[in-house]
Amino acid sequence: MVLLLLAGLLLPGQKEQPELQGKIFPAITNHLKSISKDGKSIDTIHEKAQKELAKVIVEQYQQGKELSIVLVCTGNSRRSMMGAAMGNASAAYHGLSELRFYSGGTTPSAFNSRSIRALKEIGFKIEPTGEKAKPGAKGEDNPFYQVSWLKDQGWNCIEYSKHYSDPKNPQKDFIALMVCDEADGACPVVMGAKKRISLPFTDPKAFDGKPEEAAKYSERRDDIGRFMLSTLAIAKEQLKSK
């Protein structure tokens, strides 16, 4: 099992970035600290993906140039949405300003209200803009949402359910993280990706409408969050010695 590594390491030529880290909403910072110290580690099935992702970040990371990571699931409603949010918060937490996380699906639907609740629970601000994207594959209403995790609006984003190749997402030289088995199997090749990594998480959708629904969405959010925090810490340590 891989333990979390959260040392405050600096990259070659990099100054401490309190400006970025200090702009994270306090509740989110507190939650990231909490899950990094709760004694849990990432699942064994994710260890290979962690090594692959840390390696490609180290290979591709350049000061002043965005390194894009797109989380892909089927409906772009649950795991990919929560994963992109937790990835962006983790990048800010570690001061890795060049890392940006996006989300997409193979069969878009809508940003699920349960995913929104799980993120708002730990301090993300998520509000509908009043505009809507194309309806989901089954006719789902698909609103645009302003998703904020930093006080600097230039870092925050508009989210809605979309295909991973949507113009809102990077079109080339990105890292694709396949966070569900179905999307992983349906997309053996992700067009435009420089690296494709299998990273399946169990879908909390199985608990929709059940008493444990909220707890399972929070659990999945934190599982992905621990993966992001520990992987970025490993990459940051390796970049320091590069």
Brief summary of the model shown:
The chain has 242 residues and is of the alpha/beta class. The protein is 36% helix and 17% strand. It has one domain (18-240): 3-Layer(aba) Sandwich (Rossmann fold), CATH 3.40.50.2300.
Description of the structure:
The protein is an alpha/beta fold and 242 residues long. The protein has one domain: 3-Layer(aba) Sandwich (Rossmann fold), CATH 3.40.50. It contains seven helices and seven strands, in the order αααβαβαββββαβα. The chain has helices at 18-21, 26-36, 47-60, 79-93, 113-120, 181-186, 213-240, and strands at residues 67-73, 99-105, 125-132, 143-148, 157-159, 174-178, 193-198. The strands form two sheets. It has a four-stranded parallel beta sheet. It has a three-stranded antiparallel beta sheet with strand order 3-4-5, covered by helices on one side. Helix 3 packs across helix 7 (213-240), helix 4 packs parallel to helix 5 and helix 5 crosses helix 7.
